[in-house]
Amino acid sequence: MADRDGYKFMQTCFTCGSGYQFGPGRYDGKHIARYGIDVCRSCYEGNWDGWAPHYGEKIIVHLNMKDLPIPAVNASGFLPRD
């Protein structure tokens, strides 16, 4: 759904694929610049200790496609959340 200026404020979560509102006045997601992805609040908050392995694999494929660096895993053995 877009407003009259063409801004798309309904987004699709990169990790789980669900839809969420990201503007105007309601921001139910997070842009993660390091990975160049947008995720819903539920995925962001649910992966506070790093990205679960099934999401980590998807993120690594994305990073390889975009020729972006893959960060080292954190102390939990997961890709860092941010």
Strand content: 15-25%
Rg for CA atoms: 14 Å
* CA-CA gap between termini: 27 Å
Major sheet, described briefly? 2 strands, antiparallel
Low-confidence stretches: none
Average pLDDT for all residues = 92
Count of discrete alpha- or pi-helical segments spanning 4 or more residues: 2
Oligomeric composition of the shown chains: single chain
Name the helicity range. 10-25%
Number of strands: 4
- Helix-strand string: EEEEHH
Morphology call: globular
The largest sheet has its strands arranged as 1-2
Q: Structural class, judged by helices and strands?
A: alpha+beta
Short description:
The chain has about 80 residues and is of the alpha+beta class.
Can you give a write-up of this model?
The chain is of the alpha+beta class. It is built from two helices and four strands; from the N terminus they run ββββαα. The strands form two sheets. A two-stranded antiparallel ribbon has the order 1-2. It has a two-stranded antiparallel ribbon with strand order 3-4. A hairpin with a 6-residue loop joins strand 1 (10-12) and strand 2 (19-21). The longest helix is centred in the C-terminal third of the chain and has 13 residues, at 53-65. The radius of gyration is 14 Å and the shape is globular.
